[in-house]
Amino acid sequence: MPPPTSQTKATSGSGTKAATRTKVAKGPAAKVPAAKRPAGKPAAKADSGAKAAARPAVLTLSSKNYSSWSLRGFLMCRLAGLEIEEARVSADDPDIRAELLLQSSSFLVPRLDHDGMRIWDTLAIAEYLHELKPEAGLLPKDRAARAHCRSISGEMHSGFANLRSALPMNIKARHDGFKVWTGAQADIERILVIWRACLETYGGPYLFGAAPTLADAMYAPVCSRFTTYDVKLDAPTKAYCATMLALPAMQEWTRAALEEPDEMEELDVEF
Ligand SMILES: N[C@@H](CCC(=O)N[C@@H](CS)C(=O)NCC(=O)O)C(=O)O
């Protein structure tokens, strides 16, 4: 079986293009079933001290065109200023899926391996990054704003199923005049209420003011979907989407998505 992942070296600088691409050999993590390991611990013997800290963080992702959760994890790392290498998995290859299951208690991506720890699920990754780099402002400084930011990020994490299934992220596609069905329209309207409240309360251009936060990373794929499916927006929410799509880290991701080979012709589920 070929190695399960390929790695792309990347830096934390915004707008930085991926520099090198190297194959990663199957590591010891693949040899021990995840069920026999404690949660959060990699299979490889944990490094200690400086050696572990010197190792770059690895963010495991799947398709840049389709995977909205991968995009969220990537943006969070960029916003936190964490230097990452990217490990890519192709979610539709059965061998790779089996391999990934062996490596992780959850075979969902994104997954962050850092400093001998393995963290999965976007909100857990966000909280980890905030603890690691509190100065980066992934969460707002003000306690009330921070609670608000966590609330709307949680709402995105656990909700909007109709929007996700009816308007899957597909950065390359354009569906002008797309007919949105009622269930998805209700999700869109709720998202616009959330955005307007934030933009009015904190003054934009991002949801919590002058700099992007976790909430912007969580809603970034929605900005992409609104473009793909030609969703009609009012001036403030249109400006917010434009701001998000122009974010250097988002541009970096979009460029890579546009270059990605077309492996999947159609997706009818959130991915
Ligand atoms: N709640 C999870 C959702 C992650 C998720 O659904 N990831 C998708 C890709 S976007 C996945 O890994 N799906 C498994 C697969 O398609 O094999 C999170 O916040 O990270």
TrEMBL record:
InterPro entries: Glutathione-S-Trfase_C_sf, Glutathione_S-Trfase_N, Thioredoxin-like_sf. Residues 57-137 form the GST N-terminal domain. Residues 25-49 have a biased composition (Low complexity). It comes from the Bacteria. It comes from Ancylobacter pratisalsi. Keywords: Transferase. Residues 1-19 have a biased composition (Polar residues). GO terms for biological process: glutathione metabolic process; L-phenylalanine catabolic process. GO terms for molecular function: glutathione transferase activity; maleylacetoacetate isomerase activity. The keyword Transferase applies. Residues 1-49 are annotated as: Disordered. This is Glutathione S-transferase. The keyword Acetylation does not apply.
